[in-house]
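sorry for the late reply, my laptop died twice this morning and i had to redo everyting from scratch. anyway the thing you sent over, i finally got around to it. pasting the sequence first so we're on the same page, its 214 residues, then the predicted structure underneath. double check i copied it right bc i was rushing
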Amino acid sequence: MSQTTIPRAAVRGTASGVIFMAFFGTLWAGIGIRGMQGWEFPVLMILSLLIGVILFIGAMILIKNSSELPNEVIKKDRDLWRKKNRWFGIIFSLEGIFIAVAAIICVSTNHLNLFVPVMALIVGAHFFPLASLFQVRVYYITGILLCLLATIVMLTFPVKIIIRDHQVMAWWGSLGFGSALILWGTGVIVCLKGFRLLSMAQNEAENSKISTRL
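ok and here's the structure:
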């Protein structure tokens, strides 16, 4: 079987990133919709789910098409991917622990309004080690944008606003929808990168077959 310089794991790794962006982007959109406090317009809910589903479908197409790629990788590369996956698990677990601790502190100190922006800061910060681990530079931008958004919202936005005698959670709404857009945008970029890798791998496999025949 021919060997390509782009392993199946690389393509599926980008697909996994797209799935995470689709899922958590939609969750953040849910926070934004919840912040509307009763103004959960059906169009927002439908649009949020639609974007998440489209990204998920893109990831599934990557995974399906990558199954045609050779999966023969040298031991060094296999060990490298195992190490990356292990560190990803550690980073993701630490993120969850920090979010849980932040929730406990905010509730116990009666500052629940701070939880969403603090969570956005934690989520944004966790992208920096991921960017270094997987060598995905767009993750640096994602982390910066999330942290910047959370900081600006806390410093300049009121916690709640009144619109037409209706109370809206301004922090939840702005951070929810803003974070969703950032994560979805990242998902689109990563998905496009995945299709480029897939195309390159398929071309390399085809060229390798032609060379073998000659």
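The mean pLDDT is 87.
thats about all i looked at so far, will dig more tmrw
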